[in-house]
Write a structure and sequence with these properties.
The protein is an alpha/beta fold and 218 residues long. Helices cover 37% and strands 14% of the residues.
Length: 218
């Protein structure tokens, strides 16, 4: 039996130290699997609003500088990179709203949004790199799940930025439609202010009724 070595176990290392790169994509290209799309989502945890997914095919000759996990970037930096990604890459976005989240559960709704984002790309990828442990079902191409993918692959990092900025903008608009909840400030997450607003006003159509404390048994 072959003895495992440290090089066989990249998960043992903190891969986020150096930030994401294009190595996974280049490895796929060497295998003849091209083009490569990265996909990620934003908004699994909030009590309200959609989960938004993006799929991105980067131009190897024009990759924006500074791509990283969207959670590690400031809002201003995300906004700049959002525009650069749109200008240089093939991008598709899809979302699953609260009704779908409640009906399917958040994991399945997230994966379904990722699937639709990939299928919406103008060019069909040969392989998809999906952030997390799960591959979106129903894809028409090969796919690989990449744990902490937004810290390892610039394609996934780009998708995380597109998804995050898109969702934040959606929740800012939601704040104008439902001003009692402050969606523009907390994006639907369960902050103390949001919980107080729910207590005072009850849920609105954007709330996920399968999530605690909104759930009847919550």
């Amino acid at each position: 039996m072959k003895q495992r070595t440290a090089s066989d176990s990249p998960a043992l290392f903190d891969l986020s130290e150096t930030g994401p790169d294009f190595s996974l994509e280049l490895e796929a290209k060497r295998r003849g699997q091209w083009p490569v799309a990265g996909t990620d989502e934003a908004g699994r945890g909030p009590l309200a609003g959609p989960v938004v997914a993006a799929a991105v095919i980067l131009d190897p000759e024009n990759i924006p500088d500074g791509l990283d996990d969207s959670k590690k970037l400031s809002k201003a930096r995300r906004e700049i990179l959002f525009e650069k990604i749109l200008q240089t890459s093939i991008v598709s976005v899809a979302s699953s709203g609260p009704v779908l989240v409640d009906r399917m559960n958040i994991l399945r709704a997230s994966l379904d949004a990722m699937r639709r984002a990939v299928l919406g790309l103008d060019i069909a990828p040969f392989i998809v790199l999906a952030d997390g442990r799960d591959i979106p079902p129903g894809l028409t191409c090969d796919a690989k799940a990449i744990i902490k993918g937004d810290s390892r692959s610039v394609s996934i990092a780009a998708a995380s930025i597109i998804a995050k900025v898109t969702r934040d903008r959606m929740m800012e608009k939601a704040g104008l439609i439902h001003p009692a909840y402050g969606f523009e400030t907390h994006a639907g997450y369960g902050t103390p202010a949001h919980l107080r607003a729910i207590e005072a006003n009850g849920p609105c159509p954007l709330h996920r009724m399968s999530f605690r404390p909104l759930r009847e048994d919550g």
